[in-house]
Amino acid sequence: MGSGKFTALNGIDLTFGKGEFTGIIGPSGSGKTTLLNIIGTLDVPSEGSALILGQSVANLTPASSAALRKSKLGFIFQSYNLFQVHTVFENVEFPLLLQGIETAKRRQMVLDALEWVGLTDKIKSRPAQLSGGESQRVAIARAMVKRPAVVLADEPTANLDAANSHNILQTMEKLNRELQTTFLFATHDEKVISYVRRKIFLFDGKVARDEIIDKN
Amino acid sequence: MIRFLFKGLIRDRNRSLIPFIVTATGVMLTVVFHAWMTGVIGNSIEFNARFASGHVKIMTRAYSEYAGQSPNDLAILGTDTLTDLISSEIPEMEFAERIYFGGLIDVPDSRGETRAQGPALGIGIDMLSGGNTEAERMNIPSSLKSGGLPRNSNEALLSSEFADKLGIIPGDEFTLVGSSMYGELTMHNFILSGTVEFGTTALDRGTIIADINDVREALNMFDATGEILGFFRTGTYNDEEATLIVNRFNEKYSSPDDEFSLLMKRLAQQNNMGFLVEYSGKLKGILVSVFIVAMSLILWNAGLLGGLRRYGEFGMRLAIGEEKGHVYKTMLMESLIIGFFGSLAGVALGMVIALYLQNHGIDLGIMMKNASVMMPQVFRARITPETWYIGFVPGFLSTQLGTLLAGIGIYRRQTAQLFKELEA
Fold first, then answer.
1. CATH number of the domain enclosing A179
2. Is A149 at the interface with chain B, CB within 8 A?
3. Which of A43, A62, A97 sits opposite B1 (nearest CB)?
4. Contacts A33 to B, Cβ<8 Å
5. Contact B371/B379 with Cβ under 8 angstroms?
6. Which residues, at least 6 apart from A18, have a Cβ–Cβ distance to it below 8 Å?
């Protein structure tokens, strides 16, 4: 029987700038997902502080953290987590419904997002009718449709083959460059690592190495 | 947003169809059960009222103490004017005089010697004054096995089994040997007009039914009657109203010091009928409580399972920026829709079945064959105004309660915890 307490992150001091394309890299249990959850205001640090877009995570009320996620943060997961009973269009539309954007504008934004990921021909399809790669592209469109400041992607290529992995990584890289959206990946996938421009290696909850790659 | 949720509800059978079926089935069962129990209890109460107790019964105080023995020496006198007086004082009821008596039926042979004999329990009711109110009240016309109703004075009916035992058929003569209200031995000849079979041992064993005036003549009970039975004109027993009438009547006519003063008793005070009347009154409460508890547990369980299945969806919705309160509210909204339409469908379905059972009934005559208590053969459901809402309200509420309970479990989880479970 354990004490129930576990230190997932320890002594982390990191700053992420606008438009970064960063990989948080490490083995399972290294604290990647916890770090992503804190940045995504889904969790709060037990000690220390985390500032997201100028706001302290610890001081956020449930309503204000939801508001922050609604407008500024996007999430992508390894298992896509699409709404199975809704169409591709409806899945991508959902974040805009939460923001109360009017119908015509909402429709245009959804079509734009689906065009970024090359899925305009699948708007009426259901997730069950899509391949893994297509599903993840829908997830990217859903994360990007509200033009968030930060996209948090937790093992986004874990369920994809090499071709699809490169495809979605290229899509995200393109969006990162065109929209200046910050992308933070939690990963140990070499394919993802090969795309990122900053690599933060985590080991046992601590930053082992922080490298900036010059790709120009 | 509402359209989005509604689409999800319609498309996801686990979210809509299964809770809908569970709710509709529960409501349907409640509606049918309520109508059936109301009918069965009502049938039993009314059956006893028609044959024995009336909705209220007037006797002398002394007679009431030994009512089980039908002591006609303690009968009510002066009934010529009394019944009319009571009828005018209590217009919401109609009153009927009855004489219950015991005696011996003697069947003579061609020489006038006794051919067969048997003990009989008799009922004297009004059968010849025009209209067959009492005969119909006792369901005699449809219980006729042979012959017909008495049309003339000194005609009588015997229970079919009894007539067979005595070896007589309609048209034959027999003698009632009894005792008058003054204790004298009496003998009176009757002609058998017909035989009856009620399907209840208590009534079919050895019954003689004759016109009350013939019985008066036979038992030397002129201007007297053993009992005066009162029946609500609405046709159904109302215990509260009966209590008021009884109190009013007894205050005026009854005196503890005079054993021949009149005493009115309501149905619930006779033949251990109080339990049935009380149970009938509590039925609604029992049904609703059992239903709400059972359905809430089922729907809570269904809601929890549905909620577990939807962790991914809830987690994602929270991540996208929906507030927990909003997620919870939408769950309740969904259950509101399911509860409303499921309960509506359950009521409709239950009503169709209840209506069928009300019109056709179920013949339990075989089960009642050897019953010593007076029970009808055919039991019917009865739809009352309560039947319309007794299933709907708890059906609707328990879906809400089930979701409330299930939702709390999800609501109280940390968002990050939902995510861990979502990603698991």
1. 3.40.50.300
2. no
3. A97
4. 423
5. no
6. A149, A180, A182
Give the list of residues 6+ apart from residue B199 with CB closer than 8 angstroms, or none: B143, B365, B368, B369, B377
pTM here? 0.72
Chain B residues touching chain A at CB-CB below 8 Å: 1, 4, 7-8, 11-12, 312-313, 315-324, 414-416, 419, 422-423
**d(CA B411, nearest CA chain A) in Å:** 12
For chain A, how many structural domains are there in total?
1
Indicate whether A23 belongs to any domain. Answer: no
**B200 closest CA partner among B161, B166, B235, B237:** B161
Query: Which of B35, B51, B100, B102 lies closest to B375 in space, CA to CA?
Result: B51
The number of helices, as runs of H, and strands, as runs of E, in chain A is 7, 8
Contact status of A63 with chain B (Cβ, < 8 Å)? yes
Judge if ipTM > 0.90: no
Is residue A14 in a domain?
no
Domain extents in chain B: 2-46+276-423, 56-236
B315: nearest CA partner in chain A: A81
The tens-digit pLDDT sequence of chain B (424 residues) is: 888 888 888 888 888 888 899 889 988 988 998 888 888 888 888 888 888 889 999 999 999 998 888 898 999 998 888 888 999 999 999 999 999 999 999 999 888 889 999 999 999 999 998 766 888 888 899 889 999 999 999 999 999 999 999 999 999 999 999 999 888 899 999 999 999 998 777 778 889 999 999 999 999 999 899 999 999 998 888 889 999 999 999 999 999 999 999 999 998 888 777 777 777 777 767 877 787 778 777 777 776 676 667 777 888 888 899 988 888 888 888 888 988 999 999 999 999 999 999 999 888 766 666 555 566 777 889 898 888 888 888 888 888 887 887 777 666 666 556 555 555 4
Q: What range defines the domain where residue A197 resides?
A: 56-212
